[in-house]
């Protein structure tokens, strides 16, 4: 059985929402990890409307931190939780949204994370997020999938920390060049999906959507992975 999972920084819906809906719809994803989800005026309704317009629903995520998990029609949500990560003076509030889901009998703890521009904050928050993810996964005997905008490149410390414990999906089964930022001139791979090693990565890369939509929907490109799991 294959699960389609995606991660996407949607820049607070400040770009073309119709283009964004078309890109997310093109994913045909079972789970979508969002970063920079709306968190100001009417944030709940804006998240809900975006999800509904793509045939999805909001499974997890609160206002602060701007992270959320959306799920598709064949996904059953077993549990949802949101956590504020440790506050660091002068830096933006960071959070982790977690949805524990069942897809045709397979359980997954799916987390969405957006790390800081400062390296020390990134490693601190990644460590906290991994502990929270492990706790949720253990409680439900679930595999783990973490999607996010990590604001650093694969050779850097936080990326190495995550890749030592989880599979970097793109590195395992790359499709395309993997670059995600900026959408108009992609030169960096700072967005990624990481999965527990019991989930076999079939492919990971970009989304087959119109280039005009990809450049108008956000300043980031999404990452989509196909994962093969056994119930």
TrEMBL record:
Which Gene3D superfamilies does its entry note? Endonuclease/exonuclease/phosphatase (3.60.10.10)
The leader peptide range reads none
> Keyword Hydrolase: yes or no?
yes
Top-level taxon in the UniProt lineage: Bacteria
GO molecular function: any one? hydrolase activity
Which cofactors are named for this entry? Mn(2+); Mg(2+)
Which segments constitute the Endonuclease/exonuclease/phosphatase domain? 6-220
SUPFAM superfamilies per the UniProt record, alphabetical: DNase I-like (SSF56219)
Which ranges of the sequence are coiled-coil? none
Biological-process GO terms, alphabetical = DNA repair
Keywords, A to Z? DNA damage, DNA repair, Hydrolase, Magnesium, Metal-binding, Nuclease
Record PANTHER family: TRAF AND TNF RECEPTOR-ASSOCIATED PROTEIN (PTHR15822), TYROSYL-DNA PHOSPHODIESTERASE 2 (PTHR15822:SF4)
**What protein is this chain from?**
Endonuclease/exonuclease/phosphatase domain-containing protein
Which organism does this sequence originate in? Answer: Nonomuraea glycinis
């Amino acid at each position: 059985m294959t699960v389609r999972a995606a991660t996407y920084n949607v820049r607070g819906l400040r770009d073309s929402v119709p283009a964004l809906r078309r890109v997310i719809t093109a994913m045909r994803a079972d789970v979508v990890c969002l970063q920079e989800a709306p968190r100001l005026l009417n944030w709940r309704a804006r998240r809900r409307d975006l999800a509904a317009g793509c045939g999805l629903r909001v499974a997890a995520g609160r206002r602060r931190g701007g992270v959320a998990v959306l799920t598709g029609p064949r996904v059953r949500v077993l549990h949802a939780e949101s956590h504020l990560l440790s506050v660091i003076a002068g830096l933006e509030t960071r959070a982790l949204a977690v949805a524990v889901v069942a897809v045709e009998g397979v359980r997954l703890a799916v987390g969405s994370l957006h790390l800081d521009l400062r390296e020390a904050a990134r490693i601190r928050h990644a460590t906290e997020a991994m502990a929270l993810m492990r706790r949720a996964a253990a409680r439900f005997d679930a595999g783990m999938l973490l999607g996010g905008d990590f604001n650093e490149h694969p050779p850097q410390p936080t990326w190495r920390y995550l890749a030592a414990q989880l599979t970097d999906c793109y590195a395992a089964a790359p499709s395309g060049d993997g670059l995600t930022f900026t959408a108009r001139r992609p030169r960096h791979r700072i967005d990624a999906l990481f999965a527990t090693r019991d989930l076999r990565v079939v492919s990971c890369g970009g989304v087959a959507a119109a280039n005009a939509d990809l450049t108008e929907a956000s300043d980031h490109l999404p990452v989509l992975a196909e994962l093969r799991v056994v119930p």
